[in-house]
Amino acid sequence: MFRQPSVLAPALAVLLFLQPLPPAGSRPPSGPEYLRRGWQRLLDEGEGCGPCQPEECPTPRGCLAGRVLDACDCCWECANLEGQLCDLDPEGHFYGRCGEHLECRLDAGGDLQRGEVPEPQCLCRSTSPLCGSDGRTYAQICSFQEAARAWPQANLSVMHSGPCEAEPQILSPPRDIWNVTGQDVIFGCEVFAYPMASIEWRKDGTETLLPGDDPHISVQFRGGPQRFEVTGWLQIQAIRSSDEGTYRCLARNALGQTTASASLTVFTLDQLNNTNISLLNSLNPTPEEEYDNEEEDDYY
Ligand SMILES: *[C@@H]1O[C@H](CO)[C@@H](O)[C@H](O)[C@H]1NC(C)=O
Ligand SMILES: *[C@@H]1O[C@H](CO)[C@@H](O)[C@H](O)[C@H]1NC(C)=O
Ligand SMILES: *[C@@H]1O[C@H](CO)[C@@H](O)[C@H](O)[C@H]1NC(C)=O
Ligand SMILES: *[C@@H]1O[C@H](CO)[C@@H](O)[C@H](O)[C@H]1NC(C)=O
């Protein structure tokens, strides 16, 4: 049964070690899809391509990146998604082929540790955002198609190229802060909006648009960090007890507005000395507790 070239034998041995050979007729082992497929390919290549009998091909289901022909150009199988490993060599069949609108590239721009080798992965050929019929902005056609295939019942279609026009979304809201009198504090507010949004800061309970005429408060705005984003900062220098309160970031464009707020707690040195440290630690969220915008991945 194993007639693969001997150069493949060590790799096969490793894979067999990781994924014990299932009894004949059982389902292929679960585990990372690319690993399973690489494993199957090694077996298949060992057996050569043989005559193609399409009626014996399994029907691939739930292919989020569409379908491609297998190494023998015989059966359809699921193509690899954006971000999955792929074979840089077009003749290679280890990781599999990238789906529609994707190409296999070495991602040079990644945050590789020193000495790490970049791995080829499927990347979208397009970087043009588009607006889906669900009113969401997709980073490019690849993430749109992935969503459309994942929820066929949603009947997604492309409304137009460019982001959807919508009220602003706050991607990263300001975080609660405490500190002692005399220190400087900064609140940040990262907003996605198309059309472009303006950002305003106010303290709850007052109508004054900050910084007002208060010389120890300043505000700054800058486009970014991503396209169609704008970030605003509110800085309060040498905080005093009277600065305590809730500060609100308000992002507004022609279609609407969104707000997010965070509190500032000011301790005097006296109070700090009498305050339980474990209580203080619970006041400042650790980075893990930061607003989670994981689900925005496909969008902006
Ligand atoms: C999906 O689109 C098709 C064709 O445009 C239409 O016939 C069908 O009613 C739509 N289904 C839903 C749930 O909107
Ligand atoms: C208080 O402010 C100082 C200077 O702005 C900063 O270095 C320090 O980390 C802050 N302390 C806390 C608990 O956030
Ligand atoms: C707070 O405590 C430290 C040492 O525990 C002391 O040096 C400092 O003077 C105290 N500060 C105040 C304002 O009481
Ligand atoms: C500080 O808080 C911890 C846990 O919340 C508690 O066990 C400890 O007794 C407190 N210490 C003081 C001095 O209040």
UniProtKB/TrEMBL annotation:
- Cite a GO CC annotation: interstitial matrix
Q: Which PANTHER family does this chain map to?
A: INSULIN-LIKE GROWTH FACTOR BINDING PROTEIN-RELATED (PTHR14186), KAZAL-TYPE SERINE PROTEASE INHIBITOR DOMAIN-CONTAINING PROTEIN 1 (PTHR14186:SF21)
Q: What is its main location?
A: secreted
Domain Kazal-like, chain residue ranges per copy: 116-166
Q: Where is the composition biased (Acidic residues)?
A: 287-300
User: Region entry Disordered: which residue ranges?
Assistant: 280-300
Protein's GO biological process: extracellular matrix organization; regulation of cell growth; regulation of signal transduction
Which GO terms of the molecular function aspect are on file? insulin-like growth factor binding
Stretches assigned to the IGFBP N-terminal domain = 45-125
What keywords tag this UniProt record?
A: Disulfide bond, Immunoglobulin domain, Secreted, Signal
Q: What is this protein called?
A: Kazal type serine peptidase inhibitor domain 1
